[in-house]
Design goal:
The complex is a heterodimer.
Chain A: H1 2-32, H2 39-59, H3 65-92, H4 101-122, E1 127-128, E2 136-140, E3 145-149, H5 150-172, H6 174-184, H7 186-191, H8 196-222, E4 224-225, H9 229-244, H10 249-269, H11 275-289
Antiparallel strand pairs in A: 1-4, 2-3
Helix pairs in contact in A: 1-5, 1-8, 1-9, 1-10, 2-3, 2-4, 2-8, 2-9, 3-8, 5-6, 5-8, 6-8, 9-10, 9-11, 10-11
Chain B: H1 2-26, E1 29-35, H2 42-61, E2 70-76, H3 81-94, E3 98-100, H4 105-117, E4 121-124, H5 131-134, E5 140-142, H6 147-161, E6 166-171, H7 175-190, E7 197-200, H8 209-218, E8 220-226, H9 229-241, E9 247-250, H10 258-263, E10 271-275, H11 285-293, H12 302-318, H13 325-334, E11 336-339, E12 342-345, E13 357-364, E14 370-375
Parallel strand pairs in B: 1-2, 1-3, 3-4, 4-5, 6-7, 6-8, 8-9, 9-10
Antiparallel strand pairs in B: 10-13, 11-12, 13-14
Helix pairs in contact in B: 2-12, 3-4, 6-7
């Protein structure tokens, strides 16, 4: 019984990780209708930045861990946001007017550029953080328990809070209204006085900030990272976003949870060898019956 | 302007001729070293490159092979079979006399087909999968042991010390990892122990918590992992985090100081099988001192690569710098070689006649850093 509960918890944690990164994919698709393949690499860069700034903070004599983490958080989010902004300006904005395919290829190219840049600058091997904080909640007896570490609980909470906050932002603020207007009809929004360029840049920066929070939490949780984690995480998170309905922020969270749970439960109950096969088979079957994903809105052609 | 152009033309022409003359005059002996120089396993590629290059430098300093200097040609296969083939083709086209490589068995095997077609001698310092030499290619050798030997040692150790415990055998679905896990599993089964779990994880995955929880549910007391340090470290660490009290045992894939980096405190008490540490041999003393003086600790496969280059150099010298792989192979099988790892002899298949796998344990030393030390069988 405890083991089953633990597998459910594992699935929730994994699902939150996918959901946190998927939010970035879904936001960008929602606003300009393109998949930002470089998003996974932004997440990877934030992992490296986190480790670097944390090491710097400790080197400069900050002895208290929460303070060091706070300083690191601030710097990582700012610099990663900057990366997101620059990527949009360099790789996507110049291709705004061209075919659907051009920004997609540009995104893949950007992703390769970032991967190789980090690989050359920081080396190809795995880097690791020692376990800095090992607080854990255990429910049950000393022999049989369900556990969730403090960090893992924070990941779940942060994902939920981000989803709620972003939903509030999109649906109840004037900035959110500008985002939705840009999403519905960019030309009209421009004519009505909304600076769509600024809105799009802002969405990219918010997406990058979400990725940086994900990068920090996940690196802190697992301890090791390398230049390739962006690709692996990106594929899974993109799958989660599509599963839940691309363009919908609650969809990203839902897709993430479903993907994480199905992977964990399959690995726990059947075997680990084919868990990815099962997860992707699930994606295919959902798309067959609901091509826009679970919470996705079908694209309406306005005549 | 005209005079200037003429002068430039003469200068360029002279440079070209000079360059060509230079090329013709050097005529060095090219020996390839192939391994994962980039990628997640770059640490091992570094061991191979450093070991082999140090051997070449030492031989060159002593006069080279029949007066000619060795030139090391590095090849990067990133432990990927497709890239390994490409590297092998490039080495053959570059005109290498022999190759010390590759590292991953999944790279050595496809590359060996290329070398065999071109009749080039290949000595792998580290590929332990039995298939490397079992296929009967005449000029493929190794200066390390085989996974069936490694599996036997690990299986016997588990049977002797962990008789009543439940064993989980995990692998990373790769040629080396799964081969090693299978070898250990068959030894365990032959000794009468049956594993409670046999599963494969995907290389590149970070989250193994579901696997760990499953092992907890089964009451696993021993985890045997066939694979490399990146996944091994994460599984060990996540087992420790979830409070799974099981001994973690692996093979030569975790012999690197990167393993304790990734596994953290879970490293304490981890066991692994590996060849007897060559650094303690008297024949290796001067080479080890030279490495340490240059600031590099020659761990794991460094001295194996050194040995491979030594064997190649000896064979080339005795056969008048012939590139004929089969001729050199026949020489290797008929003679013994004095190397930094002692006297080495090869059997008819290309394996070492004597192979020495022992068990090691990782513990934290007084300086706070993790290191491995040999333990009794």
């Amino acid at each position: 019984m405890y083991i089953l509960l633990q597998q459910l918890v594992n699935g929730l944690i994994l699902g939150s990780i996918y959901g946190l990164i998927a939010i970035g994919y879904t936001m960008v698709y929602g606003i300009i209708g393109m998949i930002n393949f470089a998003h996974g690499e932004i997440y990877m860069i934030s992992a490296y930045l986190f480790a670097i700034f944390l090491a710097l903070a400790i080197m400069f004599g900050v002895h208290s861990l929460p303070v060091a983490l706070l300083i690191t958080l601030v710097f990582t989010v700012i610099i990663t946001g900057l990366y997101g902004f620059v990527v949009e300006r360099v790789a996507y904005r110049p291709l705004r007017g061209s075919s659907r395919l051009a920004p997609l290829i540009s995104a893949i190219g950007m992703s390769l550029v970032l991967q190789n840049y980090v690989q050359i600058a920081q080396g190809a091997r795995d880097q690791a953080l020692p376990p800095l904080y090992t607080g854990v909640f255990r429910f049950g007896s000393a022999e049989e328990f369900v556990q969730i570490t403090h960090i893992q609980l924070i990941i779940i909470l942060v994902t939920v809070v981000s989803m709620v906050a972003l939903n509030l932002l999109i649906n109840h603020t004037s900035l959110g209204r500008a985002c939705r207007a840009t999403q519905q009809d960019r030309t009209m929004a421009n004519l009505l006085g909304i600076n769509t360029d600024r809105v799009i840049s802002l969405v990219f920066v918010i997406g990058a900030a979400m990725a940086s929070v994900a990068g920090m939490l996940i690196t802190f949780n697992f301890g090791s990272f390398n230049y390739f984690i962006g690709f692996v995480a990106g594929i899974k998170a993109f799958t989660a976003a599509v599963l839940g309905g691309i363009g919908s922020i609650p969809g990203a969270m839902l897709g993430g949870i479903i993907l994480g749970l199905s992977e964990s439960m399959f690995a726990g109950l059947v075997n680990t060898d084919y868990k990815d096969v099962f997860a992707f088979a699930l994606l295919v079957s959902v798309l067959v019956f609901r091509p826009t994903g679970i919470l996705g809105r079908p694209e309406v052609e306005k005549i | 302007m005209n005079a200037f152009k003429k002068l430039l033309g003469i200068a360029l022409g002279a440079a070209l001729v000079f360059g060509m003359l230079q090329g013709a005059a050097s005529a060095q002996i090219k020996i390839g070293i192939a391994g994962p120089i980039t990628g997640p396993y770059a640490k091992f590629g570094e061991q191979l490159t450093r070991g082999g290059t140090a051997a070449a430098e030492a031989i060159n300093k002593a006069g080279g092979i029949m007066g000619k200097k060795i030139e090391i040609v590095p090849g990067d296969d990133a432990c990927d079979p497709k890239q390994a083939r490409a590297v092998a083709n490039k080495m053959v086209n570059d005109g290498v006399y022999a190759v010390a490589g590759h590292f991953c068995s999944s790279s050595t095997i496809p590359a060996s087909e290329v070398y065999d077609e071109a009749n080039i001698l290949q000595i792998t310092p580290a590929s332990t999968n039995p298939m490397v030499t079992d296929r009967g290619l005449p000029a493929v050798f190794r200066v390390c042991g085989r996974d069936d030997q490694q599996g036997d040692v690990a299986g016997d150790y588990i049977t002797k010390h962990f008789k009543g415990k439940k064993v989980a055998v995990i692998h990373d679905k790769d040629t080396y990892g799964q081969g090693l896990a299978d070898a250990t599993k068959s030894r365990l089964n032959k000794n009468g122990m049956k594993e409670v779990l046999y599963e494969g994880v995907t290389r590149g995955d970070k989250d193994f918590n579901s696997l760990v929880t499953k092992m907890k549910g089964l009451g696993v007391g021993v985890i045997y992992f066939g694979g490399l340090h990146t996944e091994a470290g994460l599984i060990a660490r996540q087992s420790w985090e979830q409070g799974l009290k099981a001994v973690f045992i692996s093979g030569d894939g975790i012999v690197t100081d990167e393993f304790p980096n990734i596994a953290g405190p879970a490293t304490e008490g981890v066991l692994m099988s590996f060849g007897a540490d060559p650094r303690n041999l008297p024949q290796a003393a001067s080479a080890v001192k030279a490495f340490r003086a240059a600031g590099y600790e020659p761990e794991a496969y460094t001295l194996y690569a050194y040995t491979a280059i030594q064997v190649i150099a000896d064979a080339l010298k005795a056969n008048n710098l012939s590139k004929d792989g089969r001729k050199l192979a026949a020489y290797l099988k008929a003679h013994s070689f004095d190397t930094v790892m002692g006297k080495k002899e090869f059997d008819g298949k290309g394996d070492l006649k004597v192979s020495d796998y022992v068990m090691y344990r990782w513990t934290k030393g007084k300086d706070g850093k993790f290191n491995y030390a040999e333990i009794e069988m």
